[in-house]
Amino acid sequence: MEEPTENKEIVFLLADDHSIVRQGMEILIDEVLPEAVVYQTSSLQQIIGMVQEKGVEVAIIDAHFPDGNSLSTVSQLKNEHPDIKILIFSGLEEELHALKFIKAGANGYLSKLSEEEDVRQAISDMVNKGEYFSEVVRKLLVELVYNPNLVNPLSSLTARELQIASMYAEGHGNLEIANALDIKQNTVSTIKKNIFNKLKIDNIVELIELFNIHHKL
Q: HTH luxR-type domain location, by residue (predicted)?
């Protein structure tokens, strides 16, 4: 017979750079799982070490931190700790970002705009089912069956944009790319802007992380 949720001593890690978010989530975890052990961190760079040190079973992680994007961290966590359950708790739109985190290894994606009851359900599902998907994400997963490219944001780029994005990800600058492709720097800059807009990213670090997940350099 399965042990009731409230009696399970599960080790959680809350990773978010806003203390009020961590505190609010810990209160809800305590309501759902009074026996749970909860650790917190505000730093993306501390997540890997804390998971190893504390024996974390469920990690609730924000998508963005001042010290980076958590996409590659999710992938690394899953590679090093295949049994860990990861819930992304983010203010980023589910429709635009959920699938790339699931592709990286996340077991669920929850919007910070969710009602408290949905957050409680997510906590319970992560412990009892090992995953949590909102109706929005479930719909995306169904669409993915018919359109496999949906999970790969790089598929939205044209051949030229993908070529230039790949060169940026390899560490080349505007001048190097312009010379290599025999085009003007202004053209490279314009294409870079289009790439960032299509991928919903703000900098090269995020672009590199997308390539690490979705494309072999």
A: 150-215
